[in-house]
Structures are given as structure tokens and as C-alpha cells.
Design goal:
This protein is an alpha+beta fold. The protein contains 7 helices and 16 strands. It has 2 domains: 107 residues, Alpha-Beta Complex (Conserved hypothetical protein from pyrococcus furiosus pfu- 392566-001, ParB domain); 89 residues. Helix 1 packs across helix 2. The longest helix is centred in the N-terminal third of the chain and has 14 residues.
């Protein structure tokens, strides 16, 4: 059965991104929205500045498709229960090509670098690890568009994937703060795709908004939360 409850829509133009989008991922989301005909689950937005905390690709996809509104859930970003982590980009493709693309920034190779002991990013390729002397933005700008990237939340999982033949390797970046997120959004100097992973307690799940609702912002009983019978 379905329970009808209303979640607010927000004008897309009012939202402030803090991250770029991955072109491969964006195309996937556009295809998904076009196929399904609805937005599943609201994006998460800071209630003070309307900073997008989760949902950059859905925002860009809906804007690209000509929609002006998006279903959104606002939160107090100062809430200590909202936890900020980072994603680990795992590159799909050729290991040798990945090393070649990043070679200008490889400082040295180590058998196993203890994560957290270095401020600089670490490139993991199979059983080899390299210290990179470059910023997150520089590295991701070299990878985006050249490789398809899978983003994982667990470091051990990223290491395991870097050993597999279909994956080129993984990049480990340092931590990021909520202040960094706010500064990126308000300054317009936004971060690379999937830099942040926000853990939002009690976030609305299994909400479905028909795309027609997002064209003019009309809120109706068509916005429903799917409930188990």
C-alpha cells in the first residue's frame, strides 16, 4: 500500500553545489530518470544555504532534462549526528594507462604506505602504492572523462578492487571537513565529484516523485512513500 505525505520541492536554480558531477555517472542517471519517469528519494540539502549535500547527479540530470524543481529534504548541517566521510575512487581500465596518466605527479613508489601517515594522495595499483604530489582537483581532472570510475565507501574494499584485472587502481585522498564543504559551495570553487559522503540519520527513503510534478513544482498526492504491506 501507499501512504500519501508531502515533501517539499526546491527550485533547482536556488541550490548551491559543492561538488562537480562525473560525466559517466551523469549519463547513467539521465537514462535512469528517463526510463523510470520519477525521482526516487529526495536529495539532501543544508537548510541555511541550500547547499546540496547528497544528490548532485540527480540535480544536474533533472536540469539537463528541462525540469525546474527537485524533491528535497532539508537538514541542519550543524547537527553533530550528520557525519561526513569521503569516497574512494576506483578506476576501471588499464593499470599501465592509469600510471601513465598520473606519472607527472608520482613522487615515489612504496611497497605499502600506511594510510593517514601522509598528507598527499596515494595511488594503489595492484600490490604497488605510489605517493602523489598533486591536489585532489588536479588528479580527478586527469581521470574524469578518461576513465570510468566506481566510488566505494570502504578503504579495504578499494584496496581489494585495485588488485582485480578489470580495475586500473584506486586513489586515497585525505579527509575533508564540513567547513570545507560550505566554503566550496559559497565560493563557487567546487570540489571534484564524489568527494564527500554524508551519513544522514533518519533520511526519507522510498519516496517517489513523478517527473511531471517537478516541471511546475505542483505538490500532490502523487508524491508517495512506498510502504511495505
Amino acid at each position: 500500500m501507499f501512504r500519501t505525505e508531502i515533501l517539499p520541492t526546491v527550485n533547482i536554480e536556488r541550490l548551491k553545489p559543492h561538488e562537480q558531477t562525473d560525466p559517466y555517472r551523469l549519463r547513467e542517471i539521465i537514462r535512469q530518470l528517463t526510463r523510470d519517469g520519477y525521482q526516487k528519494d529526495p536529495i539532501i540539502v543544508d537548510d541555511k544555504h541550500l547547499i546540496i549535500l547528497d544528490g548532485h547527479h540527480r540535480v544536474s540530470a533533472l536540469k539537463t532534462l528541462g525540469y525546474s524543481k527537485i524533491l528535497a529534504h532539508k537538514v541542519n548541517y550543524g547537527d553533530e549526528n550528520i557525519v561526513l566521510k569521503t569516497w574512494y575512487p576506483v578506476v576501471i581500465g588499464s593499470k599501465s594507462r592509469l600510471i601513465n596518466v598520473l606519472s607527472p605527479h608520482i613522487d615515489r613508489q612504496e611497497p605499502h604506505l600506511p594510510i593517514g601517515s601522509e598528507k598527499d594522495p596515494i595511488l594503489i595499483v595492484g600490490g604497488r602504492e605510489y605517493l602523489l604530489k598533486a591536489t585532489r582537483n588536479t588528479i580527478m581532472n586527469l581521470l574524469l572523462g578518461r576513465f570510468k570510475i566506481e566510488y566505494v565507501s570502504d578503504l579495504d574494499h578499494a584496496r581489494d578492487l585495485a588488485y582485480k584485472s578489470e580495475y586500473a587502481g584506486a586513489v586515497v585522498f585525505g579527509s575533508i571537513s564540513k567547513r570545507d564543504v560550505i566554503e566550496a559551495a559559497l565560493s563557487g570553487k567546487i570540489l571534484p565529484p564524489k568527494t564527500t559522503q554524508h551519513i544522514i540519520p533518519n533520511r526519507p527513503m522510498d519516496w517517489f516523485a513523478p517527473l511531471e510534478m517537478l516541471r511546475d513544482g505542483v505538490q500532490s498526492s502523487e508524491s508517495q512513500q512506498k510502504m511495505s504491506t
